[in-house]
Fold these 2 entries.
Entry 1:
Amino acid sequence: MAEFQAQAHACLAGLLGAQSVYANRFVAAEKGGQETQLETQLGILRAVRDDVLNGRALETAHTLVAAEIFDDLFDQATHLKKAGYHVAAASLCGAALEAAMRDAAPRHNLSARATDDLSTLNQKYGAAGVYTIVRRKEVEVWAGVRNQADHGHVDQFTPEDVTAMLAGVRSFLPTLLG
């Protein structure tokens, strides 16, 4: 029973996240008697299987994977900035933000084409009321820093601008992807 519970819980946490409703209910079911535990936990696993087969759980898994990828990109950008490569950090941070906005668009009922740049995506999000005008202006500043970095206009922004960009984008993404 312990082996089954450990494997099932690890599978749920890996697929849907350790704090998912399914994982939490699975753990909570361990408080009942052994027969009740098994019955309840098998029911939870059947519900997860149903959600996976119908594509509902895959959205959650996709979001977790995307968040992990974007987090890795920000770690790389932060490392580049600390190593003195603020231009590369700005470019990578902007690319990660653009990819995250494109990825999150369907969750906000927006269409995003592969050719949409960061400014275009920002306009779509702003027009749809996904975030405030202040946030929209902030994203436009980040897009400007990224654009200047990408085009080699290194005298148009400072390392401090990149530091602020990294901090702002990192705090913004959980809201966007959430």
Entry 2:
Amino acid sequence: MSDARQLLGIKGASGTKNIWKLRLQLMKPITWIPLLWGVICGAAASGNFQWHLSDVLAAFACMLMSGPFLTGYTQTINDFYDREIDAINEPNRPIPSGAISLTQVKLQIWSLLLGGLLIAYGLDIWAKHSFPTVLVLALGGSFVSFIYSAPPLKLKQNGWLGNYALGASYIALPWWAGQALFGHLTFITALLTLAYSFSGLGIAVINDFKSVEGDKELGLQSLPVAFGIKKASWISAGMINIFQLAMVLVLISIGQHFASVILILLIIPQITFQDIWLLRDPLAFDVKYQASAQPFLILGMLVTALAIGHSSLSGVL
């Protein structure tokens, strides 16, 4: 189990000297899942995805860009700039433990970034875009990832701004990439997914609970530091629930009543698990909560995306 945690990049992982396992740990594969799912949601929302080999391969390439490459880049650069915090919170991480050199880390950062951008450019060529939409989205997301972790801006120093940037990167950006690849990304869809990203903000807060000690020592104003553990857990739950319920209203407004009912049914178990795990002891049960509740969140995203793709207003949305 500890070896699996090491490969996935989860806290409590065992140590290793294998350079490829260390590289994978820096990329935190566990964090790729929402991005991969976001691409699927975007493709579904486009209303144009077909189960043809070319579309499947293009979707796979888009997920490869969003997950292993650009999310891997994001996680690696975050570990690079968080090495002082990790020395307090997670001293066995590859960088603070000295298991991998900073030169090797920088090489990984550049390799993942350039690889992801190259795939994005290739996807624009495949989609015959007159404007390189996917490449621009990849560049924008990469820039947000950089200023999230790197000084002087270091968005993660501000709990609200940093967590929203993270939430939007996990929900809106891959959705936009998938929808732009197979259809047209509209202004209304962009606004809807940015609103949906406030649920991602709630998820991002959960990741801050494990770092409270180091954040306090280095003066980072994460929401658990600014408001305390208890209030931050309620903020997290509120963000997750309120903005999913807002999507229910959107689905009703576009005539997708059946989808709105399904989304409500998917929100109910999330609230239940919040009561069981998140609101009782987020420090002890953060991993259990995410494992139990997040599948319902991402299924709700897909329900919303499919409803938009099948709506008579899909050309507008």
